[in-house]
Design goal:
A 5-stranded mixed β-sheet has the order 3-2-1-9-10. Strands 4-5-6-8-7 form a 5-stranded mixed β-sheet, with helices on one face. It contains 8 helices and 10 strands. It is an alpha/beta fold. α3 packs across α5 and α7 runs antiparallel to α8.
């Protein structure tokens, strides 16, 4: 079984299409949230995900930007993110907003080898908001896993790819499709191949996309130029 992990698309249609060409052959797609926020194509991204979820194994959880757009909870956001959230609320179709509202904050998945996964955007302690950065000590990751009964924890939110192996359990972040922040501008995703050994079967991938078009659309829509410029830097 081939499982694709994606997260943090952030309304970047160009990045999503580039990644989709790479992952559409997968048997299951697991998305750790933030379909919207920052970028210029929220309706296109949400409608694409909606259609895929209707016809194949595609699970998705709600991220903090999804939540902010859906429910108007943008406190704590920086000015650039807040401006984007409010623009998203203005331009998004009602059915797409309702879809975001219905997304769960947790999802469970079991692969064909009976290995179990918990999908969540931030962490089990704060599903929408906690950042699990790669540089945290192992003691912190062990504390997080104490909240999880499944074998593996799949997260997003940091926009930084990560694989932490603690004994026989893993915490995996595929990085960001639409706004990477690890210094590499290319869209990020991960694949799990269950035909391989469980602790050796995760691969991280990067794919180039039309970043100039994604940035142009952000500026064209009147969103903060900072949100366009950062796409070129991967920060």
């Amino acid at each position: 079984m081939l499982i694709a992990l994606i997260s943090d698309i952030h309304s970047n249609w160009e990045a999503l299409q580039a990644v989709w060409r790479e992952v559409k052959r997968a048997d299951a797609i697991l998305c750790m949230g933030d379909l919207v926020g920052y970028g210029a194509s929220p309706n296109e991204v949400v409608e694409f995900v909606r259609k895929q979820m209707e016809k194949r194994a595609f699970l998705c959880v709600r991220g903090n930007h999804d939540n902010a757009v859906a429910f108007g909870t943008d406190w704590g956001f920086n000015p650039y993110a807040r401006e984007a959230v409010r623009w998203h609320q203005w331009v998004m179709k009602s059915e797409n907003l309702e879809f975001l509202r219905r997304l769960p904050v947790r999802q469970l998945f079991t692969d064909d080898m009976r290995r179990s996964y918990l999908l969540i955007h931030g962490s089990p302690r704060a599903p929408l908001d906690e950042y699990l950065f790669p540089w945290l000590p192992d003691s912190e990751f062990r504390a997080v896993l104490s909240y999880v009964r499944q074998d593996d924890l799949l997260v997003g939110h940091t926009h930084i790819p990560m694989l932490k192996v603690l004994d026989w359990r893993r915490i995996i972040n595929p990085g960001s499709v639409g706004q990477p922040r690890d210094g590499d501008w290319r869209a990020s995703y991960a694949l799990i191949d269950t035909s391989e050994e469980p602790l050796e079967n995760v691969e991280f991938h990067r794919v180039e996309y039309d970043v100039e078009e994604a940035a142009r659309k952000i500026i064209e829509k009147g969103l903060p130029r900072f949100l366009a410029n950062r796409l070129f830097e991967g920060v």
